[in-house]
Structure formats: structure tokens, C-alpha cells
Amino acid sequence: MASFLIVNPRSGDGGADELVLEAQRRGIRTHALGEGDDPAEIARSAEADALGMAGGDGSLAAVAAVAIERDLPFACIPFGTRNHFARDVGLDRDDPVGALDALVDGEERRIDIGRANDRVFLNNVSLGLYAQLVHRREQHRHRRDAFARLRALGIVATHRKTLGITLDGQRIEARVVLVSNNAYALDVLSIGERDRVDEGKLHFYALHGLLRFSWEDRSGARFTVDAAAGGVRTAVDGEPEVLETPIEFTVHPGALRVLLPRGPRS
Q1: Both ends of the chain: CA-CA distance in Å?
Q2: Cβ count near 238 (within 10 Å)
Q3: Of 68, 94, 132, 261, which has the fewest Cβ atoms less than 10 A away?
Q4: Whether the Cβ atoms of residue 207 and residue 146 lie closer than 8 Å to each other
Q5: What is the DSSP letter of 168?
Q6: What are the DSSP E strand ranges found in 59-157?
Q7: Do residues 62 and 37 lie in contact, with contact meaning Cβ atoms separated by under 8 Å?
Q8: Per-residue pLDDT of the chain (266 residues; tens, 9 = 90+)
Q9: Which residues, including other chains, have CB under 8 Å from residue 42's CB and lie 6 or more apart?
């Protein structure tokens, strides 16, 4: 297999040189992103039978989109801070070197992807306060849970303005909204795990309440989110972005060919 790996050296806590060296030892051609490099264009022009991306959640979708476009298998090398996608496909988030084996002799699995208009997302798109809540949670993940919960609840309590959006023409009175590729286990403050990444459904979550929180969950193959403002501030797989409205959310079952290392995974 002629594999090509793109490495984002700015992801995670460093160690890109070691990762590149380990990839080269396995015969994997690599490209470490430099200033101004477009990972999608690099992936699009690479002569390869498989594409890999070493980075955090925000780095993966652009290369995965090219893999879909070229009908090539895609390997995720967990190299970021949270690595939610890697976790949900069964990889050990703390072993990027071990994940390289997928690009040498991996086994293929087909999973779903979502699109927000033309933008591919692997995990979710958050609107409103949810991205801020997640960031607060992650910033304090090594501190006591009670402290992190208190900080996040403070954010919600002081931001009472709703998003001013509609879902399929119906007004949604919520300050926190999440559209996900397959179902998540959620609490008030954090994104949990997905049991499946091949359910073939989007989930629309809206958080209601001030003192007593509850999630409204709708599922389907397509949602349309609109806003009078003409644009909505979002976080797409954790990356801040403004999306023009209306946003057409769609799920594409089995669209991504994911390569995983053979043998037991976490």
C-alpha cells in the first residue's frame, strides 16, 4: 500500500519529529504542514493508495473529505488534545505511533460523515454556547470535576439570550445546540462517547432550562437550520467557524473508508 501521511506539528503537545521518523520507518511517505500549507490541496495532489492525517479533531475533516472525493481509505492518527474521533472509532488516543500500523496493513471499515452545507464534519457542529462550554470543560479537565461544572454552569447562567434560529422552519428556544454525526451521550457540560459511527443518522440536540437542564434530542437524515442574521457562529469539530444560513445538515452513511490497525483496540 502506497500510504501518504500529513502531520500537523502544531497539534497536541509536540513530538511531531518522532512521529514522522516512526512513519518513515514503516515506509509511509509524510508531509509535515508548514506555514500556509493547505492540507486538503496536499492530500488532493498526493500519489497514494491511502491518506492519513495526524492531528486533532479539527485537522481531520479536510483530509477525510479528500479521501471521500478520491475514494481512498483514510487513517486517523490521534495527535491532538481531545481526539474524540479517534476514541469513537476505537483507537487508543494515547498511542499515535501504534495507529500508524493502519497505513501499513490496516483493516477497512465504512463509517458515516455529516455535511453542513458543503463542509464535512466527522463529529459535530455546535452553535451558541456549547463550544464555549466544551472548551471550559477541557481547559479544566485535570482539575476537580465540581470546579469545572461550576465554571460551566456560570457561563450558562449569565448568557440567557437564545440563538434565534429555526429548525426545519420551527423556532428553537435554546442557547445551546449541537448537531452530531450519530448519537452522543451528553451531560450538561461535556460531550460523551458515541456507541456507533455507522447509525446513518444525524442528531439535533437543544439544551433547555436554567436551573434544571434537559436535552431535547431529534434524529433524522437531514435538518435545515436558519437564522435571520444570515450567519451563525459555530464550532465545526471543535474549530470556530461562521456558517452562512440556511445550513443544510445531511448525513452520508458509509461514505468514509476508515483504516484501523488490526488486532485489539481500546
Answers
A1: 25
A2: 24
A3: 94
A4: no
A5: T
A6: 74-78, 107-116, 119-121, 124-128
A7: no
A8: 799 999 999 887 778 999 999 999 999 999 999 999 999 999 999 999 999 999 999 899 999 999 999 999 999 999 988 899 999 999 999 999 999 999 999 999 999 999 999 999 999 999 876 655 554 554 444 444 444 444 554 555 555 566 788 999 999 888 889 999 999 998 765 678 999 999 999 999 998 765 557 788 999 999 999 998 888 888 899 888 889 999 999 999 999 999 999 976 55
A9: 6, 31, 33
Specify the DSSP class assigned to residue 34: -
Helices and strands in the chain, H and E counts: 8, 16
Cell of 201: 443518522
Three-state SS at 244: strand
Contact yes or no for 164/207 (Cβ under 8 A): no
186: which 3 cell numbers? Answer: 451528553
